[in-house]
Amino acid sequence: MTEAAGYNVAILGATGAVGTRLIEQLSQSTIPVKSLKLLASARSAGQTRTFREQAIVIEEAQPAFFEGIDLVLASAGGSVSAALAPEAVKRGAVVVDNSSFWRMHDDVPLVVPEVNEQALYEHHGIIANPNCSTIQMVVALEPVRQAYGLNQIIVSTYQAASGAGQTAWNELNAEAAQHLAGEKMTADILPVKGAQHHYPLAFNLLPQIDVFEEEDYTHEEWKMIRETKKIMLGDKFSKDIKVTGTAVRVPIGIGHGESIYFEVSDAEKANVAGIRQVLSTADGVVLQDDPANQLYPQPLNAEGKRETFVGRIRRDVENDGSFHMWVVADNLLKGAAWNTVQIAERLVALDLVHVPANVTIPDPKAE
């Protein structure tokens, strides 16, 4: 498929919070779209969405609908991606998937374009979009790693309700209204669906994102640890950088914040001024770091923007070669829809929108 002819594109999961933003970001992208197919669950079939002033009817996602499609942008959940992404690849489409299902598969690149674009050359038809909190952290830290090396990362996240989906975001708004009306808040979703207990997020903090796993870390925390290593080092179990963290859900709608402690390898060379200079010219980063004038990143200001915002850069006064920073990004854009479309833009630019000949399609049952 030549760029002049354009690409036949499908969006899988077109009606969700991320899916609607995928439509918007694709409409603003440099990708030459010849046709667009919008796919979702049966309950959404028949609805319409607008793309570049054209009304498109949503169809129920089925394998046959990927015939003739060149590029699939997917945000439909892990089980749907596990079932349908290989079907799309079998029919010749390249899939950029926003779910967590494919991220840890060894034959699926996990890509943040500002950090490891070169991994796209190794795709077998599926490319994974990382976790939203991982994306903004590696965008902020990769320029530092390139300049000074990294030995250790300790992150504490402050993650918005929308990171748990539209229903969680709706529940937060309902809880806030209940509390302000003097009523008892009702919680049915957070901290995680299917859990024994649910707690209100409004006027509260929940130090649990997803289920608890080994060593009492949550699945979200393990995702950040392993995804960071895979993106930066190409090995999800690498010991070359120590990574750990605590993930917390906070009562805001959009925009994840992160307090990041990091230790550099070149302690003699690194300093705050140098780190600020490196980040001031880094791809995808906006430096907002002027304490004297109270300039620092805030979720309200990041909402609707594609960039990752970095501030509060300072040295650790107790540990030489260690520093702190505060990082904020729109979790539905850079953390999801925009990073997905950005990957697709790079696939187009690098002429990689094709399934390699004789490729072994990633197996959903193997990691």
What structural keywords apply?
9 helices; 367 residues; alpha/beta; six-stranded parallel β-sheet; globular; single chain
Structure description:
It is a single chain. With 367 residues, the chain is of the alpha/beta class. Helix content is 29%, strand content 22%. The protein is built from 9 helices and 14 strands. A 6-stranded parallel sheet has the order 5-2-1-6-7-8, with helices on both faces. A 6-stranded mixed sheet has the order 10-9-11-14-13-12. A two-stranded antiparallel ribbon has the order 3-4. α3 links the parallel β7 and β8. α1 crosses α9. The longest helix is centred in the middle third of the chain and has 17 residues. It is globular and about 60 Å long.
Helix content: 25-40%
Distance between the termini: 31 Å
What is Rg? 21 Å
Taking all residues together, what is the mean pLDDT? Answer: 96
Please provide the count of β strands.
14
Q: Give the overall shape.
A: globular
> Major sheet, described briefly?
6 strands, parallel
Outline of the structure:
This protein is of the alpha/beta class. Helix content is 29%, strand content 22%.
Task: Walk me through the topology.
Blueprint: E1 7-12, H1 17-27, E2 33-40, E3 48-51, E4 54-57, E5 59-60, E6 71-74, H2 78-90, E7 94-97, H3 113-116, E8 126-128, H4 132-148, E9 150-159, H5 166-180, H6 219-233, E10 242-249, E11 256-264, H7 272-280, E12 285-287, H8 299-302, E13 308-315, E14 322-329, H9 333-349
Parallel strand pairs: 1-2, 1-6, 2-5, 6-7, 7-8, 9-10, 12-13
Antiparallel strand pairs: 3-4, 9-11, 11-14, 13-14
Helix pairs in contact: 1-9, 4-6, 4-9
